[in-house]
Amino acid sequence: MHDDRWATCSLEIGGSRVEWFASRLSDDVLGDLMSALAALLRDGATDATVVFVDEPGCLALTLTTQAAGAVRVSVSRFADWPLTGRPAGEVIFNEVARLRTLAGSVVSSAQDLLATFGSGGYLARWGAPFPEAALTSLQAALHERRG
After folding, report:
1. CA-based nearest residue to 114, from 140, 85, 135
2. Which of 24, 35, 59, 144 is the most exposed place for a label (fewest CB within 10 A)?
3. Residue 51 in contact with residue 60, Cβ under 8 Å?
């Protein structure tokens, strides 16, 4: 995360990698991502989209469940936002991963952010509280799927 309330986001699956910036206008995008993954794991949701604002445009990360515990991860770039009523954007990343592996990686990254900045530092840098409830929910969803 940068002091100017921008975050560098990256995603790597297999040999494919994508990186983008997210603005503070993304609000609780980390919480949204963790909640989306928990819904896929726990609630039987089949797809979810999380929007990262990259002023003036945005990126949509779409998660779509596949057979055998896999998830298709697609990242599309849009020239502006919000996305309501917009046609499809330019797909810049499209890979399949294990849902539990992706969810575990997001939990690990969120824990690293919390350990690095603490709740107060996260709030100061991002302008929103650390999404502890979403992290707890995702951790519980991962645990439930094991048992």
Report:
1. 135
2. 144
3. yes
